[in-house]
Amino acid sequence: MIEKIAHKLTRKPKLVAAIALLMLIPSIIGYAATRINYDILSYLPQDLPSSQGEQLLEEPFKMAATSMLIVEGMPAGYTNKLIQDIKDVPGVSSAVWLSNLVGIQVPVEMIPADLREMFFSGQATMMLIQYDHPGASDETMEAIQQVRNVCNERCFLAGFSVVIKDTRDVMDGELPIFVGLAILLALVAMSVTLESTVLPFVYLASIGLAVVYNFGSNVFLGQISYITKAIAAVLQLGVTMDYSIFLYHRYEEEREHYDDKRDAMAQAIIAAFRSLSGSSLTTIAGFLALCFMRLTLGRDIGIVMAKGVVLGVATVILVLPSLVLIFDKQIGKHKHKTLIPSFDKVNSFILRYRIPLVVLTVLLFFPAVYAQRHADIYYKLDESLPRDLPSIVSNEKLKDDFDMATSHFVVLRDDLSAADMREIERRMEEVPGITSVVSYHKMLGTGIPDFFIPKDVKDMLRQGGWQLMMVNSSYAPATDEVAGQLDAMNEILHSYDPSSMITGEGAMYRDLIDTSSVDFQVTNYISIAAIFLIIAVVFKSVTVPLVLVATIELAIFINQGCCYFLGTEIPFIAPTIISCVQLGATVDYAILMTSRFQEELKKGLDRKEAIRIAASSSDASIVTSALVLFCATLGVSFVSSIDLIGAICVMLSRGALISALVSIFLMPAILLVCEPVFNKTSWRWKTPDPVPTAEPLPAPAAEALPAGETEALPAGDAQPAEALPEGEAKAVRKKPRKKHAARERTPAGVK
């Protein structure tokens, strides 16, 4: 089947290229229709109490999206008008200030002191703004922008939804720069490692098509995270570049055995399909391991990237050959010397000192593992944002002026007695770090008649058999202090109402910490196990995958351990992503060298000569691949003002280099030392594989040729000739086909 497909593809390269370009239309439409989710906390498992509480805030309370507006040094008249203007904004459900929280008929002296302190601080006053739609929805984002438009420079809008809004604005502005810089640096990397000036552009055109196809097909997922959007294109570029290089190198090899470049490309497609369909499985397995995270952000990244690898392989097999054939003359015309140095002396050194290098490899595990486990991790997402963003400035002001670093939203049954509610409120206020408690019962407890409390305030605090309590804390989210505070609050609440739930930023961050710590272990083990099994099947061995996976894991430990030695904090999602992605993407370096090592052993070469050839043939490919991935991801880290994105890309770029260095400088020594073990624990490790009898590629049916341009067929050749363009007719020679057939009947590489 693949033989027929390869033959047909190479006969109509311009048609294939045209179809590939037409497929961009539905892909672009799908990309535009795919929603981007900027709320990482929404990916928490829905069975957690904080997530269930968040659902109650959305319905029936309609408080999932709440922001705080601080107004500094403005008269009461301005504040009253501002409240009305904000209420008129589409998407805003309510705007609550102290006056309408308890009713304007209530004297100030009757207002509880903690309520006054909550809404007033010196010359500043605060109001609560609620929105009709969830916090990360497009409608809420637009409403936040409109609220900002009606405010002056003395107004500061704070809250988690506002942080999401600023994150989206930053990402939308920087993404084109990400992609452009990644393409530019990838071109630079390929220009110094590839022989042709034109070839990098052909590679990028093919990969660019795969990237657009991938993003367009995300419409079937409904939405993707902004992290996925930021890194997927760059990561797909770096990961799938290997496949393009492999196909072209195989095409160049086949050109020596065929007169017709189309036949050479067809044979290259066949070889590439057989190799890439297997080697890409390790990368796909690494990405799919992320789908086992309880934090569904992993599934988001994993599916998109695994799909990107599949589409990348498909594009290399189906589209890239046509582009190469179309631009073949230009590729060959603009060639230059590469800047990749010879590794012969390095390889000789490695083979000479193989035992010390293996010992060094083992010893490196100890500091690398220690550093990896002790690297500092942060979970609070706004810590990754520029400190001069309006939302960050406003949140700091909320903390400094009103002592509100975190707001906990407590959902309880509405049938609790007044005595129980008073006791809950009293005990809550005694919890360390709690600055104020707001509830419906607390308002009534001051002697304010029920009919004085506005209906919209009642609806805000009591709905559907539930009541809402707002508990403000001076502790910042994602800290040990707020975790202890939440434990104390839960103990109090569950003694009165076991069904009660605490939600809000603090509770959700605590669940994020607990969930991600488990996710890291689970996904790491699954990715290792999956890739181990794939390599075991490929090499028919239990020791080969053990050595290869352990070596790349060392590179991963070193990569993550660098953060410890450099004293830098990394975002919580980075270790999980790096562990799976770096293992899946760079284990191919080790597989490439090991495959060639085994191939040379099967030819009867001794271990030293086999590893020398394997290392020499693999080094250039490893350098090219790693350099492209390094440059593409490093460029993003330079530009991104969001540390979450920048940190992930820094670790991806550094991981590519470390994996390449480990593969080039340590892997040959490890393979050479471990080869006797491989020979005893692997099936047919050195036994030459049976070579099937080669069959000639199918040729198209005979077509009518212009008058006077009939091709001559050699005697005994039953294959009909294909019509050739005018002026390009030539005799089909049988010798290259025989030469190729003879080569196929001999073990690979034997001359």
What do you see in this structure?
- This protein is an alpha+beta fold.
- The chain folds into 2 domains: 2-33 and 167-374 and 512-681, Multidrug efflux transporter AcrB transmembrane fold, CATH 1.20.1640; 49-158 and 389-503, no CATH class.
- Helix content is 63%, strand content 8%.
- It is built from 29 helices and 14 strands.
- Strands 2, 3, 4, 5 and 6 form a 5-stranded antiparallel beta sheet that branches. Strands 9, 10, 11, 12 and 13 form a 5-stranded antiparallel beta sheet that branches.
- β4 and β5 form a beta hairpin.
- α26 packs antiparallel against α27.
- The longest helix is centred in the last third of the chain and has 35 residues, at 505-539.
- The protein is elongated, with a radius of gyration of 32 Å.
- Mean pLDDT is 84; it is low at 699-751.
* CATH class label of the largest domain: Mainly Alpha
The overall number of domains is 2
Number of helices, where a helix is a run of at least 4 consecutive DSSP H or I residues: 29
Shape verdict: elongated
Q: Biggest sheet: strands, sense, closure?
A: 5 strands, antiparallel
Q: Uncertain regions: pLDDT < 50 for 5+ in a row? A: 699-751
Give the CATH topology of the largest domain. Answer: Multidrug efflux transporter AcrB transmembrane fold
- The CATH homologous superfamily of the largest domain: Multidrug efflux transporter AcrB transmembrane domain
Give the integer mean of the pLDDT values.
Answer: 84
